[in-house]
Amino acid sequence: MSSIVYSAYGRRLIQQAAGRHPRHIAIMLDGNRRWAREAGFTDVADGHRAGAQKISDFLLWCNEAEVEVVTMWLLSTDNLNRPAEEVGPLLQIIADVTEELAKPENPWQLRIVGALDLLPDDIAKRLITAAEQTEGRKGMEVNVAVGYGGRQEIADAVKKLLLQHADEGTSIRELAKILDVDHISEHLYTSGQPDPDLIIRTSGEQRLSGFLLWQSAHSEFWFTEAYWPAFRRVDFLRAMRDYAWRHRRFGN
């Protein structure tokens, strides 16, 4: 597609999506390793590096579209079980890109979501420090999901809830009488934020794999064959257009 046609198509997609955009977009940045292999790289870390370079572009697209919250899944709890020679470089790449995203010129605030106690101490510290540097910034909130698993998040939320009520002297029986979904939502990693309106997954896979299990109850899903490093602005605009065309029923 020529640059002129590509630009015209992009403008048309923007027009088609006008008037309705998601407040919260969550994205599964999938396909880095397959992209690297198909591109002829022998080290899959090259795919992760290429994917990391795409993140800032994606966030700028979201910011232009007036999205309020973005959640990016960079590393799952299952990924931590992969060989150390693969996980080690990936963790370094994630820490590097998070520090880049935290630089003062970027108009967003970072929140690290996940079981940071499962990460190496030095990586966890770098991630936390980067997020702290963005505190107080106005504009879009960006959740960086590292060492994240949906079941782990719910388990952690229940633990926090139980500990809170134990400190307050509430018995298990008393807690059982008053417990509702809002109590658990208040203790999720994404507490205080709207649930995702749109969840995007790249690479052709069409499953959640445990991503935002609680929060995705009424989310819309959009899947693309493109590997994450090859994800383009036109792909993003197609997702936005398709979301705008859908009639959300919220379980009804």
From TrEMBL:
The active site is at 30, 79 (proton acceptor). Binds 2 magnesium ions per subunit. The keyword rRNA processing does not apply. SUPFAM superfamilies: Undecaprenyl diphosphate synthase (SSF64005). One of its GO terms (molecular function) is Z-farnesyl diphosphate synthase activity. Pfam families: Prenyltransf. Mg(2+) binds at residues 30, 220. Its EC number is 2.5.1.-. Homodimer. This is Isoprenyl transferase.
